[in-house]
Design a protein that fits this description.
There is one protein chain. With 369 residues, the chain is of the alpha/beta class. It has 2 domains: 163 residues, Quinone Oxidoreductase, Chain A, domain 1 (Alpha-Beta Complex), CATH 3.90.180; 164 residues, NAD(P)-binding Rossmann-like Domain (Rossmann fold), CATH 3.40.50.720. It contains 10 helices and 17 strands. The longest helix is centred in the middle third of the chain and has 17 residues.
Amino acid sequence: MSQPTNFHDVVFTCPGDVAIRPTKLDDLQDGEFLVRTLYTAISAGTELTLYNGTNPKTNEGWDIERRLFRGDIEPDKDEIYPMIKGYMESAEVIESRNPDVPVGTIIASSYGHFGARIIRPGDYYVVLPPELDPLLGTFVAHMGPISMNGVLYAADEVHHTLLTSLEGSLDGQRVLVMGAGIVGLLAGMFAKWAGAADVVVIDGIENRLATARALGLATHLADSNMAVTLKNRWTDENPMNTGADLVLQCTGSDYLLHHSFASLREQGTVVDLGFYQQGASNVLFGKEFHHNRLRHICAQIGAIPRGQHGHWTKRRLSEATIQFLIKNEQLIKEHVITQVVPFSEAPDIFKRLSERDPDVLQAILQPDN
């Protein structure tokens, strides 16, 4: 296969700097196929930590055998600048040596901000149905499963048994969602779809809360008295039952984590999807966490709850995401996706995200060619 010259990649050259560079590809081998990127969405969470240079993987090595960060190990080669990141892509197959994936197939994958990419055996991808707009396909391979997995962890906490479906799995539950970014908004919608009796989204940015309300979710502006407000909303004759049953913590804010604990009923659970690269000095475990006997669970897409192994997989979460996106296509297009811009505008979009521009919620990049 000749090297294409009309594809480009979005590259972090160093913290705070983005460049557009020509794509380099190997020859296509048996079982592989080549895709051209249609859309690649930006993660304003983990990916932004790499743009900002605050991700620990850029400074320390990850000991995979011991599952420890270690200063005496060099970072992985994929975590050293220059690097190409991103994990929300939809693409069209333009050449194939895989008989199961013909040319013209539209897929979702998580390979990063490449203009074109070879998909090899073992790489994760999902074939998209024709009724799903490829623009929304950017949520299928990773971002949708991230948020859906948070709901799966929450439902596992409620039932402690194998779940056959997420629909109805949160019946009767009072769910607090911390953060109205893309993960929080999707998690809130998924929790409501899963049957939660009440879902409230907290954020400090009013226009993010307006988006949550447009998606059918109740909201409250973050303030120092929010735990009192929420416990007044979810009061019970028995004080042990006053408060949220579950919190989906979808930010890297230790301030909101502190208020997550304060807002829970006795023996409630925080299901945490946040990434605290700056630590959590505002969390005081000697307060509500201790006196209300609370639980705190990290829910990352790298693992399904152990009690759900063998029945739930990332692919099943992707399939559930597809069905959800098809039913809610117009809502998400109108209220969640805020920018669709060419690769050439990527430096400006990342800068705006780093500066916490409230008008950038979900930005999606599109190759210029």
